[in-house]
Amino acid sequence: MVPTIDQLEQYFDYVERLVVGTLAAASPGLPNVQEALNRLWLDISRFGPPGLPSFPDIRVPGLRPFEVPPPPPPPPPKSLIDNAGDCIARHPWIVSGVAISALGAGLLAGYSIVCMRSLKGRRVKVASPQFERRQAVVILGGDHPLGLPLIMEFEKQGYIVITSVSSPETVSDIESKGHGYVRALILDPSEPGTIPIFLRSLASTLSRRFPITAAGDPYAPTPYHPMVHSVISLLTMPTASVHCAPAPFEQISLRSTYLPHLLSTHVAPLQVIQALLPLLRADASRARGHKSIILCLPAADARVGLPFGSVNAMSAAATLRAADVLRREIAAAQGMSAIRIVTVDVGAVGSSTGDLSETVNMDDWTPSEKATYGAALSALRETRGSRVPADVSTFVDSLVSVASGGTKARYSGKFVFGIGFGLVYEQFKDWVRGDRFSIGAGAGTYAIASYLPPVLLDSLLALPHFLMTIRNRLLPPLPPRTDPPSNRTVRSTTPASHPENVPGTGTSSLVLHRPVGLDSTISEAAVTPESHPNVEEEGTSPDAEAESNDGDLESTSVGSSWVSLGPHE
């Protein structure tokens, strides 16, 4: 029988009452389920889930513990260059317009500055007073082959030039080539008595009004007196003369040869500089500018010291050491920091180098000296003279740059967009060169060679003589030269008691560019004792081989020797 709807509703009602009654009977204190869930949710939200019991650590062999990789770092921020590139990529036309405008404004500003400077220079040149030149440059040795170009360049750069010459005939020649700002005074370095006269003339010249050809009062007012700006010594760089001819140290007369050369190239220039130091110190403190003392020395003698050049080398070494000591004294002194001591090693420049191809006089040499040093001197002659001299303008511009501090050098007036990069370049070059630098052909080579070890340097300097010796050994021997019977001399058996019976024979001069004459001279000097039994008595005596270097002591054995050293003169 199918129940009806009423029966079903009654059944469901019964079941509901049964369940509720059963639960109420089983747990009379059980709270409401909804309230319990709400309370549980609040507790979890406030305190989190309750702790779970720890499970045992289960490790599987062969597997590493799992590590969570760190998150990747954030990308770096863009730099200024990246931002500028992005901006240019986004706005190309705007950036191009701004760049063109800035470039045009810079060019216009630079052109305006250059035009204003040029216009100002013209106005100053037109309206300048007569006493505008006050910086004087003292050049010792104006009659040196490099002196005249140096004098003309300093006058062209706006300096008053006071130079020294050794003869009165040169005074008018030098002053006539200037424009009234060149004054030549007499100073003979070989005569010490002319030094005080030169200093008095210099003091008088510093009170003159320049140009000296101007009409009116020849003396300037005291506020417009010229001030010594720089002292340049060319006397320390001598030309070829009898005092500096190549000769072995053994043959040099220290009294008659070296002492005059030392007085001319070392003592006289330093004595003038010594007298000018107080004037330089006073002018430096008054003008608040940099002063300079420039000493020019031959590069080969100051750096290395070549064989057979002992006279020049000793004088140059003494001057160089004096310059170093003076530089250190000025650096330690008070109120003299503005004075600069510069040493210039001059190589082959123009025609200033001495001509070593001339005949070297060997009349005063003993036969032993000729046989010992003749071949080496000939080798030195044949290995020199092939260097091409540098231009004189290089030497002149370098000295002008040092004296002016780079402000009046060749490239000091160069401007780029209105900025004086030329002056910066000249000042930087002057700073890099320091207080000693080299000018001219070969000067750099000698400067580098001076840093070599002495053993290596001596070997390099002896190489020409070694090669010449090998060449002479490979050449066929020359046939012996026989003199006519009338030209032969007969030695007296008693030369001491009858000196008038012994005719005097002159000695030959050695021509350096003719080694054949040298070989014949040496071969004639080397006479065997068998053919002349009495040579051993005189030729090997100390009086015959030793040579006195004093002017008043002369060896008579060479003049009375019966051995013919060459053709009679």
UniProtKB/TrEMBL annotation:
Say yes or no: keyword Membrane present.
yes
- Spell out the residue ranges making up region: Disordered: 474-569
Q: Where is the composition biased (Acidic residues)?
A: 536-553
Keyword list (alphabetical) reads: Membrane, Transmembrane, Transmembrane helix
Q: Which InterPro entries match?
A: DUF1776_fun (IPR013952), NAD(P)-bd_dom_sf (IPR036291)
Q: One Pfam family, short name please?
A: DUF1776
Q: Where is the composition biased (Polar residues)?
A: 486-496, 554-563
Does the entry feature the keyword Repeat, yes or no? no
Residue intervals passing through the bilayer: 93-114
Q: What is this protein called?
A: DUF1776-domain-containing protein
* Organism annotation: Boletus edulis BED1
